[in-house]
Amino acid sequence: VVVEHRSVGAYLQRARHAYPDASGTALLHSRIAFDLTVTALYTPLVSGGCVRLADLKDAPVTSGAPDFMKATPSHLALLESLPDTASPTGTLVLGGEQLLGETLAPWRECHPDVTVVNAYGPTEATVNCTDFTLPPGAPTPTGPVPIGRPFWNTQAYVLDAALLPVPPGVAGELYIAGTGLARGYLGRPDMTAERFTANPFGGPGSRMYRTGDIAMWGADGPLRYVGRADQ
């Protein structure tokens, strides 16, 4: 996936304002090649923060708890098994997998003062393009946690097979448009043309990305992930 510099810059511009705790200490525990690292490494660096590199299992030994962390929902069970100093004290951003309230609740009960952000987005949209925030005191949803609303520089469309918008509560395929779209797939013009299509809701030359994900707008506004179109 060929992601342009301007797309990464736009993502980080938004991230530094959306995640103020990144101006403190962040724990980077993932490989550089994983796009989760863009949030965990560069957001603190453009926010005046400090990045500590450590494996999650070693983090409690190296120093105190970080202020900011990004992880996947699968990491929650590991964080629960580790000392409290392995978990962030300010903001935990979760992404890369569907987040269930039942998976999040045990960790959140032990860390009620931490803001949890459920982030959604394919690499083709530069890391993440929507998110849903659970501030301290907000109830943990049951079942799938909403994936929220698109970023300020992003448009999200839930469309039927004729590329027409579906009403709230009706599932359709999720398409993404905006500044964060990647250029395409390196050396794969056929795949690029298939997944990055003309945007009928935008200006001349604008594109949108066909995610292959099924989603719906909730009656209360936020997007909800339903599943994959190919399953």
From TrEMBL:
Query: What are the entry keywords?
Result: Phosphopantetheine, Phosphoprotein
Q: Which Pfam families match?
A: AMP-binding (PF00501)
Limits of the AMP-dependent synthetase/ligase domain: 1-186
Q: What is this protein called?
A: Non-ribosomal peptide synthetase
Q: Indicate whether Phosphoprotein appears among the record's keywords.
A: yes
Q: Which GO terms describe its cellular component?
A: cytosol
Q: Which PANTHER family match?
A: FATTY ACID SYNTHASE (PTHR45527:SF1), NONRIBOSOMAL PEPTIDE SYNTHETASE (PTHR45527)
What's a single GO BP term from this record? secondary metabolite biosynthetic process
One of the record's GO molecular function terms: phosphopantetheine binding
List, alphabetically, the InterPro entries matched: AMP-dep_synth/lig_dom (IPR000873), ANL_N_sf (IPR042099)
